Amino acid sequence: MSEHLNETRRRRTFAIISHPDAGKTTLTEKLLLFGGAIQLAGSVKGRKAARHATSDWMALEKERGISVTSSVMQFPYEGKIVNLLDTPGHADFGEDTYRVLTAVDSALMVIDCAKGVEERTIKLMEVCRLRDTPIMTFINKLDREGRSPIELLDEVERVLKIQCAPVTWPIGMGARLKGVYHLLLDEVHIYEAGRNFTRQDSTIFKGLDAPGLAERIGAEALAELREELELVQGASHPFDAQAYLAGRQTPVFFGSAVNNFGVQLLLDFFVEHAPAPKPRATTTREVRPEEEKLTGFVFKIQANMDPQHRDRVAFMRICSGRYSPGMKALQVRTAKEVKLANALTFMASDREIVDTAYPGDVIGLHNHGTISIGDTFTEGEPLSFTGIPNFAPELFRRARLRDPLKMKQLAKGLAQLSEEGATQFFRPLMSNDLILGAVGMLQFDVVAYRLKDEYGVDCAFEQVGVVTARWIRCADAKKFEEFRDKNAMNLALDAAGELVYLAPSRVNLQLAEERWPQVTFAATREHA
Ligand code: GDP
Asked: Transmembrane segments in this chain: where (predicted)?
């Protein structure tokens, strides 16, 4: 097998989806620990805290109990290279999360055993379903009293409409937690509080009849387990790799992230069964990961990751070929050739210069305002990856400056912050207003805070008569011009310079659509 193919096939690129507090951060920490990426569990939190301390912006994040930053962590495990893409937790940042999910090949869903399926999990699941993303499930916090495992699986199947295939099964719960039984390996893994379990230092019994097991977990617990397993094996689905890869079935694991219990069983199964990078659709053709030439798309832009650098980083998912330092690539949107020098990866807590990166990997490109979300890079072929939309914002505010002399900084700040994708910035054709669109109210506070903190601009956001936005497209140049002239009052340019119709009301939009049948009013702007 060629080196390229081999490297591609051992990539596992995924994200964790969960409702806040289910244990995503804790589980991330433990996964990194197994990957040897960090020495001590707790470093992820530690890193978070250190960042909070060094940046006021992070202080806001902490104050609100939200995480708006997202990072990429790579670690080797059992001959595979695992890429874990972090997703922001707060509901207002759903669009960001959506785009991270376009860059992964599979997902891991974490559920709190006391809470079951929560609202945010449902939404994230809907997003995964759009691309039939394969999902594994980890039911967490088994060291606490929760709902019955059967009831939990039932809820997942009913609410999320996906088959459950339990791979591990809990023996007891809360204070009575004895361990988990692995249905496929036919092994009992004993739970011992306060220890970090690797395979080497866990107690494992082979099979339910193994000598000593009944003494260890108690005859009663063992009898209960047998009974439950009979029920489960009768009522649930056996693991079916194809159904999992098609997004129809989710393998389910039980454990306790904070106690590092059940996590390695999950990771072992994950690296074996989770999909390697797959072909991806573009505007012209499907791109296969094993192709020799580099292609990739930008799914996220993040500002000021390192307070010392105050730069912006564009995260690019590699879809085919190979990245090597200093190589040249075509930025398809601008038709410019750019040098991809010194790409970054984000291993554990420090940035490192990547030598070579393969399909499934994510690299960080330094961005001085020329890269946008959705940008495709290739080695010359003019194709663009599809399916990374910008949603029409639903809330609009006009930026009002307290110091009119800061107009230029304000425009720059708004444009740069909207590049990150959480907000969108519009300049009406007929006025000097600067209008910001967002999908959640919290984003206006975040932007105001950051404008002050990072650009020294004091500004407030006030009501403006816009209810929705539509991106305008028209194949007929003459009609397009006519439309533009007649509707200039309601037209604006977005940060990428695309024409947008800012509708003062739904009725107005409907009338405009009826009056101009040749014009397309698109609710999303596909980055192309
Ligand atoms: P996130 O918001 O999903 O990232 O959740 P965190 O990982 O920050 O966890 C939320 C809270 O649940 C924290 O206080 C964790 O210590 C706690 N937690 C995480 N995993 C477990 C677990 O297995 N058992 C118990 N009892 N608590 C847990």
From this structure: none
